[in-house]
Amino acid sequence: MIERIPELVNDDPAIVRWGRDMNETFMVEVGERQYLLTVRAGRVESVATGPFVMRPWRFAIRASEASWERFWRKVPEPGWHDLFALLRRGDVAFEGDQRVLIAYLMYLKLVLAAPRRLAA
Amino acid sequence: MSARIEPVIGRYAHLELEGRSHRLYFEEAGQGIPLLCLHTAGSDGRQYRAVLNDPEITKHYRVVAFDMPWHGKSSPPAGWEREEYRLTAEAYASLVMAVARGLGLARPVVMGCSIGGRIVLHLALAHAPALRALIGLQSAAFVERYYDAAWLNHAEVHGGQACGAIAYGLMAPVSPDPHRWETVWHYMQGGPGVFTGDLFFYQGASDLRERLDGIDTGVCPLYMLTGEYDYSASPKDTQAAAARIRGAKVTIMKGLGHFPMSENPEAFLAYLRPVLDEIRATSESSHGGVP
Q: Are B15 and B22 in contact (CB under 8 A)?
């Protein structure tokens, strides 16, 4: 799912506009799998797949594979429908620079929910 | 073509609150039993636009929605630039009662959402005889702090965008986009630090868990309506509170989140109208039909 994010985001101006000032690399963990997403002016320029041994990132968003699976359903159930819903459950961890994460929270929520469009 | 004009009227009221002068904005529509509506943290009375515009309701109710001080079109009091806004239970409860008195709302029904859903529990404890009924939307006795709200009022974060992003997730994904994004917009328009100042009351300062058994729904009926997608005041939180209040009537609302009246007005009205009908029927039988 994460690999598909560039195509889902970059052609959608309704998402890109919320990240237009963002130029950062951040990590997403889906269970054991690590991804580094690099954003340039709201476009997801690259998705690198781990494992990584020496790579910097601004912040990391980590959740189990099962949590992401429920989060990415077409119509997610209550409690799995938003990053902060996962946070409230204790199912996601936000690490690193919290200021940048909160500053781009709307963008990040839309980017990470974009794979729902691929759900059956 | 002439514009379609709503029956809603907006005006300003001057009130003395905690020794300071305030100019409060309020909207109203309808005639009958007063129904005073309380918006959520960091937002304003526009959340009740559909209730104010519902002829089924305004036929029997005088619906009033005001903007709290610091919110919407109610400016902060003079001297605000020297202080940090922080809502307290005492200030909030006395604000609601002062607005009711000031606007001549005799034994109103008070309906509040989120922080408003919390304050109706305070009102149930302290002012029940003066109130006809209470409706708590997304009502919980306590909400744990699960994120650091200080980031919502930080010079290096766009507060409007951050507050909007917080509000966005609290809604049901199935609520209609135009209403969801209008709800977000209200949040994006909040003044700096206002949402955070409201959350001071909501996430911590007001904990009613040990006081709920003091609520007497025989004096003032209490209805609690909670949207299933809310993870701030979740159905579980509402049910936990209701379990300790004898006579509290709980409805879990399908396909709604933390802002039912604003995120999906039609779905919400279908839940609200029967509650208001019941309140009207009960108060007519016990008060000789005089609203």
A: yes
Q: What is the layout of strands, in order, in the sheet containing A92-96? A: A43-49, A33-40, A23-30, A59-63, A92-96
- Structural contact between residues B136 and B110, judged by C-beta atoms closer than 8 angstroms: no
Structure tokens at B95: 């604000």
Q: Which residues of A touch B (CB under 8 A)?
A: 18, 75-76, 78-79, 81-85, 87-89, 98-99, 102-103, 105-106, 109
CA distance B181 to B178: 5
pTM of this structure? 0.96
ipTM over 0.95: yes
Q: Cα separation of B178 and B264, whole Å? A: 9
Kindly report, residue by residue over A49-104, the tens digit of the pLDDT: 999 999 999 999 999 999 999 999 999 999 999 999 999 999 999 999 999 999 99
Burial of B225 (0-12, 13-18, 19+ CB in 10 A): buried
CA–CA dist B145, B132 (Å, integer)? 32
In the numeric block, the tokens 């500053």 are attached to A103
For B124-165, write each residue's pLDDT tens digit: 999 999 999 999 999 999 988 889 999 999 999 999 999 999
In B, minimum Cα distance to A78 occurs at B229
B219 is written with which tokens?
A: 């004096």
